[in-house]
Write a structure and sequence with these properties.
Length: 313
């Protein structure tokens, strides 16, 4: 939502209104009206009165000037008579509340200026009246914003510095309106921990990102909130120790990965926490194994294990 003079006065100049009870001291064309609105002195510093801009034999907009520059109210109306834009100037600069309206009369934008600079809270609305976007203006080149969908759900949070837009968070929702996912951004890339949720509001996943790639420990939970999987990532690849868990919280399997493949020892446990067997993996395949009772696991068993057959010690 870019509340610039250009947007404001394009809206003003392109709107057609019914003739109002306004005394026009000066009549100017569209170009001149925009120039005056943007701070150009009209005629000289002694000029005072009301400037009007005509279109199709109707008044499009009017603006009060004092000492050659805009000062006081400036308004414009749609052809249906509804107010299009209302703004205030002080010594040639926007100052105070600015309002822009839909042709139906509902509010489109509200914002505030202080001596030509946006300050405080600005809001943009859908035509049904629901909030679409809200921004807090910290200075003329910096603001933080939240954007909503037509169902009033927060979708995006971002900040703007020196006209550069940078996302900070994005949101997704289940059909029941419960939040489904929160993504965190820095420099317009996924950074930090992102969360996804079950419809019952319990955490489903928490994933650590660095520059759009998974980096760190990713955790997966069941719908009751119990941890079922921990996977370690480095620069977008599975790397390091990984664990899966039984519902009672005991480790089911723990093993090392390298470059997205099982590599090194992997230990398999019974649900009671006792060791079942250990496999030695290389580039994603088991090359040897041993049961906890000391029995060596055969090559045939390892081959069948790769097909999904359980190893029985």
């Amino acid at each position: 939502m870019k509340f610039l003079y250009t947007l404001l006065f394009i809206l003003i100049v392109n709107s057609i209104i019914y003739a109002q009870d306004i005394t026009c001291n000066f009549v100017v064309d569209d170009k001149k009206f925009r120039e005056i609105a943007n701070g150009q002195v009209y005629k000289n510093r002694h000029t005072t009165g009301t400037i009007c801009n005509y279109g199709s034999n109707n008044v499009i907009s009017y603006m009060n000037i004092v000492n050659g520059v805009p000062h006081g109210e400036s308004e414009v109306y749609y052809v249906n008579g509804f107010l299009n834009t209302k703004a205030n100037f002080s010594n040639g600069l926007l100052h105070g509340k600015v309002e822009i309206f839909y042709p139906t009369g509902s509010v489109y934008i509200t914002t505030f200026y202080e001596q030509g600079h946006q300050k405080g809270i600005s809001k943009e609305f859908y035509e049904n009246g629901n909030l679409k976007e809200q921004c807090e203006h910290k200075n003329n080149n910096s603001r933080t914003c939240s954007r909503y969908d037509e169902n009033k759900l927060l979708r995006v949070q971002y900040k703007i510095l020196n006209n550069k837009e940078e996302y900070t968070k994005a949101y997704d929702y289940h059909d029941n309106g419960i939040i489904k996912e929160i993504l965190q951004y820095q420099n317009n890339k996924l950074n930090g921990i992102s969360y996804s949720y079950y419809p019952n509001k319990k955490i489903e996943r928490e994933i650590s990102f660095k520059n759009d790639k998974q980096d760190g420990i990713a955790k997966v939970y069941d719908e009751n909130g119990s941890l079922i999987l921990e996977t370690t990532y480095k620069n977008g690849k599975i790397e390091g120790l990984n664990k899966s868990y039984y519902k009672n919280g005991n480790v089911q399997v723990e093993g090392n990965f390298k470059n997205n493949k099982a590599d090194g020892p992997a230990k398999f446990y019974y649900e009671n926490g006792k060791l079942n067997f250990t496999l030695i993996n290389k580039k994603g395949k088991p090359i040897s194994g041993q049961c906890a009772n000391g029995r060596e696991i055969s090559k045939k068993e390892l081959k069948e294990f790769m097909k999904g057959t359980e190893i029985k010690c």
